[in-house]
Design a protein that fits this description.
The complex is a heterodimer.
Chain A lengths: L1 H5 L1 H23 L6 H10 L6 H23 L2 H24 L5 H29 L3 H14 L13 H28 L5 H29 L12 H14 L9 H31 L1
Helix pairs in contact in A: 2-3, 2-5, 3-4, 3-5, 4-5, 6-7, 6-8, 6-9, 7-8, 8-11, 9-10, 9-11, 10-11
Chain B lengths: L1 H35 L7 H28 L5 H20 L2 H4 L3 H6 L1 H21 L9 H22 L4 H24 L1
Helix pairs in contact in B: 1-2, 1-3, 1-6, 2-3, 3-8, 6-7, 6-8, 7-8
The chains are: A mainly alpha, B mainly alpha.
Amino acid sequence: MKKLIKVNSVRHLTRILCALIIALIVNYLATGTQQGWLPFTTVVVMLTSTGSALYQGLWRFLFISIAVIAGSLIFSSVHFLYARMYDVVLGALIGILANLIILPDRVDVEYRLTFIPILKSYAKYFSALVSALINGNLTAVEQQKIMVEQHMQKLPVWIYEAGFDLALQKGYRYFFMKVSQIGEILFAIHHLVRFHYDKDLVDTIREPLLQCVLRVEQFIAALNTVLGLKKLSEGLLDFDAELAEIERRFKKRLPSDLEVASITTTKEYVYLTEFLFDLRELRGALLRLTETLR
Amino acid sequence: MLRIMNGLYELLIRLVISNCLNTLAQLQQAYFACYIKQDYFFRQSDHEKAINQKRSKWLRKAGLARYWLKSNKNNSTKWQVIFSKVEHLSEIIFSLNQLRFRVHEKALFEMCFVEMQSLEKSSTTALRKIAKSLFYNKHFFDSEEMAAAIHAFEAISDRVLKIASNEPIIFLFFIQDLYALNDAISQFYEKTN
């Protein structure tokens, strides 16, 4: 039960049910029309996205009011308009207040917890991508890609909704953008991994590359610890040194006469250079994420 | 009866894959708005919101396509190969559009505004054409149109962008990915027609 009440959708549903019960009681005791406008307005003003309860509730109230005024003036008398508006105002008041007071949205918790599975799937995907680059076997990568795609669909898009807390908006959107960027970098790496590279060339960078995978996993585990509001047991280890080592080894293997080399060889080196560039950007995005969480 | 069922299944798969390709075209358009629209650096959040919407749409469509491909294992081998090509196309588009995170000077995009417009037009048209070619054999796709746009971009990149940019290599990656996209689109067209 305790766990269930922490889930945002359950909290929202509970809120709506409580408000609906209150609205039905008020409707029975103090309604103007008995036409059901009061409970209807209560429910409609509560159908808001996470973090935008007041703003979106007020907009919905405004739309219902306009519809009621227009409908009443066209189809019935002014007396009914007053009675209906009385119900609508009362219903909106119950709905908006209930949305703000009874089990309110835990925006921060909801936001942080959404990213944990996404980041975990990134770590696994990256590890599978590096393995595929080394062995040339793409089967495991496809599975991990599907997992990442499924998790990416659960990104908290409600931070882009109108009326989302202005104080939180900028930071939350930045973090969101960086997490999406990491996903895109991994998809870009997937494209580069599909190319067949010379085994000797890949073997040259194999060892520091595997070190990189470990570092990325540690990085993401640390990020998840912070997102889960737990204490970090050890400091973060950057993987700049590993990247520098990969670049050093790669440069050693670069043919001096690359422009006259065959197209395939040139393509191979350009793709691997792009791969290394993507790794640098992955590191950059991960560092930005940690900076945001400080 | 079995033949009718298989025919309907194939039609459904064609429709689903065609939807995926059209969504990719929309995603590509949203990405290129970052290079073409003057306000990208001032309204980055709005552009990222639009990209996120299109990307989510693509992810949903891809998930749906996978679901239908899995549902009939006897008939889907050929279509699974074709869908893997669509997935590769999406990866190239993601790789291509890392450019928006790599370029930090608005002036660079202004210098290649016309070429970017032409790239956007030719690439989205190509994606829409191959989507239509799944239904109409008459819908002829010509890779030369996109190749011409890439050559034009390559020319301005050599003349101006690589000199003006702090990191000229990013344009080399962009061009390489553009060629990869054109090749992948051509291969897809050949495979399905």
